[in-house]
């Protein structure tokens, strides 16, 4: 699959996720896809289990913003911010493709933190 087609598939995936369309959101995954959440030590086996897990989330996300999508070939990374219960969760999704479908995804989640004052002279605040 060419990079432009994968980027279009990723855009459709994130749009479906934002719209709450669980079926379209999970079209991007191979039936035997694996999804890892390293911070919790969880591994979800199979597209159906991943879709079921996300569909039953008790604190459904209130929305999210894709910051950027980078990649080529079979490896793609999406950086985005999920809003959970009024708080941002900074998220990175690493997707490995086989053909047109994701066979492995790893997601990392990070909470925001206050920047220390000692480094103000070298940094610029981002939105």
Could you describe the 3D structure shown?
The chain is built from three helices and six strands. The longest helix is centred in the first third of the chain and has 17 residues, at 3-19. β4 (75-84) and β5 (87-98) form a beta hairpin. By secondary structure, the chain is of the alpha+beta class. It has a single domain (3-112), classed as Nuclear Transport Factor 2, Chain: A (Roll), CATH 3.10.450. Strands 2-1-6-5-4-3 form a six-stranded mixed β-sheet, covered by helices on one side.
Describe this structure in a few short sentences.
The protein has 127 residues and is an alpha+beta fold. It has helices at 3-19, 22-25, 47-55, and strands spanning 29-37, 42-45, 63-72, 75-84, 87-98, 101-110.
């Amino acid at each position: 699959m060419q990079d432009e087609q994968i980027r279009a598939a990723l855009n459709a995936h994130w749009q479906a996720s934002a719209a709450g369309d669980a079926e379209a959101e999970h079209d991007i995954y191979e039936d035997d896809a694996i999804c890892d959440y390293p911070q919790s030590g969880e591994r979800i086996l199979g597209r159906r289990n991943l879709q079921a897990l996300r569909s039953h989330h008790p604190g459904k996300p209130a929305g999210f913003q894709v910051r950027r999508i980078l990649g080529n070939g079979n490896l793609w990374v999406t950086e985005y911010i999920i809003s959970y219960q009024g708080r941002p969760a900074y998220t990175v999704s690493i997707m490995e493709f086989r053909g047109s479908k994701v066979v492995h995804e790893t997601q990392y989640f990070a909470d925001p933190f206050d920047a220390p004052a000692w480094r103000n002279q070298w940094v610029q605040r981002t939105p």
